[in-house]
Design a protein that fits this description.
It is built from 4 helices and no strands. The protein is mostly helical and 64 residues long. It has one domain. Helix 1 packs across helix 2 (21-30) and helix 1 packs parallel to helix 4 (43-63). The chain is globular, with a radius of gyration of 12 Å. The N and C termini lie far apart (32 Å).
């Protein structure tokens, strides 16, 4: 894992494949990142992820 858990979370949010922060939290845990719950509990980070997920979904729907 060369990326930090924060970087990986942002990357997954930008993918457009996730609709909920909890899904990303589960994915990074599955990938072996430690203490995901602590990182994903931060309200500011959760808000940032939600915004990225929404933007990514909108971009995907416009491209389709």
């Amino acid at each position: 894992m060369s990326k930090s858990i924060i970087e990986r979370g942002l990357e997954l949010a930008n993918s457009g494949a996730y609709r909920r922060v909890e899904e990303i939290e589960r994915e990074v845990s599955f990938e072996g990142y430690m203490n995901a719950a602590q990182h994903f509990a931060a309200p500011t980070f959760r808000k940032q992820l939600r915004g990225l997920m929404q933007s990514a979904r909108m971009a995907r729907s416009e491209a389709a």
